[in-house]
Amino acid sequence: MSNTCKFISLCNALEVPQGAAVKLEKEGLTLAVFNVDGAYFVTQDACTHGLGSLSEGDIVGDVVECNFHGGAFNIRTGEVVSSPCSVPLKIYKTRLQGGSVEIEI
């Protein structure tokens, strides 16, 4: 059995403005791609608490607030920052390759 990593390209880094996020669907995943001070982070797009789309939430620094119930997560780690959320986000190992944002799946 092989332990090789597989990275998939999500988007051009220029498509994600600093301090913003974009929602993408790739390989059956619905993802939020964040640009925090020129660093890129990718999480699941769905809030772990309800129906909110994190790519549509408010971003302050490295925290995103869900647009549905107002719970918040650390974009870098996926950890819960404020209730009513209690389950951390799934985050993906992310790299910038030739101007493209890629994640490991």
Number of strands: 11
Q: Describe the biggest sheet?
A: 4 strands, antiparallel
Strand content: over 45%
How many structural domains does the protein architecture include?
1
Kindly identify the CATH topology.
Rieske Iron-sulfur Protein
Can you walk me through this structure?
- The protein has 105 residues and is mostly beta strands.
- It has a single domain, classed as Rieske [2Fe-2S] iron-sulphur domain (Rieske Iron-sulfur Protein, 3-layer Sandwich), CATH 2.102.10.10.
- The chain is 0% helix and 47% strand.
- The protein starts with 6 loop residues before the first strand and ends with a strand.
- The model has no long low-confidence stretch (mean pLDDT 94).
Characteristic key phrases:
4-stranded antiparallel sheet, 0% helix, globular, mainly beta, 105 residues, Rieske Iron-sulfur Protein
Question: How would you summarize what this structure contains?
Answer:
The protein is an all-beta fold. The chain contains no helices and 11 strands.
SSE layout:
Blueprint: E1 7-12, E2 21-26, E3 29-36, E4 39-44, E5 58-60, E6 63-65, E7 72-74, E8 80-82, E9 91-92, E10 94-97, E11 100-104
Antiparallel strand pairs: 1-11, 2-3, 3-4, 4-9, 5-6, 6-7, 7-8, 10-11
